[in-house]
Amino acid sequence: MGGVNPYIAPARVKKPTKKFRVTFLPLNVVTEVDPSKERLGHDGLPFSILDIAEGCGVDIDHSCGGVCACSTCHVYLRQGGETCNPQSDDEADQLDNARGVELDSRLSCQCVPDGTQDVVVEIPAWNRNLVRE
């Protein structure tokens, strides 16, 4: 699906400039992100957690196609959250609808690490899409 949500302001993002690694828990999938290459997936912001997950075969549910119009791609940033773009008001509004929200909760479609350190992401059980069509 992918695309842009015309009803929200674009997220303020500092794109990564050097390689970094993202670990997806509890799957223990580790992937290296090289920002000099094309984006990894096709949904969410370029080099967002959702984009990176798609690129390495990790399924995170995202009903709206990664345009910040739902809360299904909710994840926890267990490490490296401070290297990500700040949460926008629109993202915070969507997270209000998510269950199990914690201080380190983010929408994976809107969360873009800047690459200054590795990131550890926990995908809640209810957000792991185990169905393949």
In brief, what are we looking at here?
The chain is α+β, with helices and mostly antiparallel strands and 133 residues long. The chain has one domain (20-127): Ubiquitin-like (UB roll), CATH 3.10.20.30. It is built from two helices and five strands, in the order E-E-H-E-H-E-E.
**Which CATH class is shown?**
Alpha Beta
Enter the CATH topology name.
Answer: Ubiquitin-like (UB roll)
Overall form: globular
Are there runs of 5+ residues with pLDDT below 50, and where? none
CATH architecture: Roll
Q: End-to-end distance, in Å?
A: 15 Å
Give the radius of gyration: 13 Å
In what range is the share of β-strand residues? 15-25%
The overall average pLDDT, rounded, is: 89
Major beta sheet, strand line-up = 2-1-5-3-4
Helix fraction, binned, reads 10-25%
State the total count of DSSP E strands: 5
Specify the number of helices: 2
H and E order: EEHEHEE
Q: Give the helix/strand class.
A: alpha+beta
**Sheet with the most strands, sense and barrel status:** 5 strands, mixed
Total individual domains: 1
Task: Please identify which CATH superfamily we are dealing with.
Answer: Beta-grasp domain
What can you tell me about this protein's structure?
The relative contact order is 0.27. β1 and β2 form a beta hairpin. The longest helix is centred in the middle third of the chain and has 7 residues, at 49-55. The protein has a single domain (20-127), classed as Ubiquitin-like (UB roll) (Roll), CATH 3.10.20.30. Helix content is 11%, strand content 18%. With 133 residues, it is an alpha+beta fold. The chain contains two helices and five strands. The protein has a five-stranded mixed beta sheet with strand order 2-1-5-3-4. The model has no long low-confidence stretch (mean pLDDT 89).
